[in-house]
């Protein structure tokens, strides 16, 4: 039986690492930014377009800061190139990957995109601000003030993107099977806690079937 694990996460909460651990635990393909490469291949557009748009609404307004040779003329001049079309290409890539076997997706509205797929488990990972700031400081080699600014800006973009495309509210517990604070147990133990939850949920489904 294939399973799909979708992870929403606050910036700096360890969501990507937790996703990687869960992918190994359950023998799943792992997709975070990797989905951008798949979307580029499926659409024929340069991967840099998807990187610019990644969880950020309003990319199209900055399109003309890029060089024209990166455009796919046939799509652009028939008005098929837009924020919405990029989101659709990315969504198609997510659905294709999910249809091919067990996957862990981090972000990119995967919980919404795959809402009609069976055996989906949606998790949202939070953490205290201090925990997230420390992670961002280490990752980006910046001081606390800069880390807090990165968190505020990127989380605003991430939540706006999610809310716009899903019609839901980013981080709302009603959208997830489990919401957990990774700063309580730490990243590794949080991943194992989630794995235990997933096994219990899958066992419950098997019994119901």
Q: Tell me the major beta sheet.
A: 5 strands, parallel
What Rg is obtained from the alpha carbons, in whole angstroms? 18 Å
The low-confidence parts are 59-80
Per DSSP E runs of 2 or more residues, the count of β-strands stands at 5
The total count of helices amounts to 10
What do the pLDDT scores average to? Answer: 84
> What does the overall shape look like?
globular
Percent strand: 5-15%
H/E series, N to C? Answer: EHEHHHHEHEHHEHH
Helical content, roughly? Answer: 55-70%
Distance, first to last CA: 13 Å
Spatial order of the strands forming the largest sheet? 2-3-1-4-5
Structural class: alpha/beta
Structure commentary:
- This protein has 209 residues and is α/β, with parallel strands linked by helices.
- 55% of the residues lie in helices and 11% in strands.
- The chain has ten helices and five strands; from the N terminus they run E-H-E-H-H-H-H-E-H-E-H-H-E-H-H.
- The chain has a five-stranded parallel beta sheet with strand order 2-3-1-4-5, sandwiched between helices.
């Amino acid at each position: 039986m294939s399973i799909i694990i979708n992870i929403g996460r606050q910036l700096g909460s360890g969501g990507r690492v937790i996703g990687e651990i869960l992918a190994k635990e359950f023998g799943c393909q792992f997709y975070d930014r990797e989905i951008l490469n798949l979307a580029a291949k499926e659409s024929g557009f340069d991967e840099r377009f998807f990187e610019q748009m990644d969880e950020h609404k309003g990319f199209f307004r900055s399109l003309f800061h890029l060089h024209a040779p990166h455009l796919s003329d046939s799509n652009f001049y028939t008005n098929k190139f837009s924020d919405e079309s990029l989101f659709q290409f990315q969504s198609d890539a997510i659905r294709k990957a999910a249809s091919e076997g067990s996957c862990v997706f981090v972000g990119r509205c995967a919980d919404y995109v795959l809402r009609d797929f069976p055996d989906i488990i949606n998790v949202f990972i939070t953490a205290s601000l201090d925990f997230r700031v420390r992670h961002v400081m280490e990752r980006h080699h910046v001081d606390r003030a800069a880390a807090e600014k990165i968190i505020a800006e990127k989380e605003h973009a991430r939540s706006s993107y999610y809310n716009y495309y899903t019609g839901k509210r980013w981080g709302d517990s009603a959208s997830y099977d489990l919401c957990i604070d990774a700063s309580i147990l730490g990243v590794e133990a949080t991943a194992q806690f989630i794995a235990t939850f997933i096994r219990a949920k899958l066992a419950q489904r098997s019994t119901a079937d």
